[in-house]
# Entry
Amino acid sequence: MYKKLDLPGEAPLNSTRCETILKEALSETPRVLVVDEAQWLDTRAFEFIRELWDDEDTRLAVVLVGAETCYQKIKNRPALDSRILVWQRYKPLTPAEVLTVIPKYHPLWADVPADELLWIDDVACHGNFRQWAKITYLLWDEHGGTDAKGPGSAGPPQPAAPEGAAAPFPPYSRDLVRAVLSRLDPTQRHVD
# Structure
């Protein structure tokens, strides 16, 4: 946290001094502390987060993101549990949500037919947005990232798009998607 707050020098080895510096920094401006994979935190870490939140001078909102075990860990700590305002459970995207969200998520998906998006979701993503992000990243990388190439992608980069216009993308290819999916899980065959 010391480094993420961009505080000068190294974090003090003395935990009391380090905590004081962190609290001072957190009192300067409102902040949101997002802790991903919170199910891996131990009791001491949960208590430290609670103490930061409780401090009258810190201007801190806390978001804990974690798997089901995170919920149980927090429920087992009444002092922390009583401070949780909202619990939010995330569910996989429905097929209708996939068709609405994914084409807007990245221009790579904007012109992909609905049946192809549903095929990808069925064989690989199962409504999991993180899986969609992985596939999007790998396809984007296959297309040369910011240097999107033309059809066939073996040739030189296309000329830059006019200012304000989106860079062109090669046409959708199920074969390329299959290749990307095999990079994610080489033990699976992705057939029609």
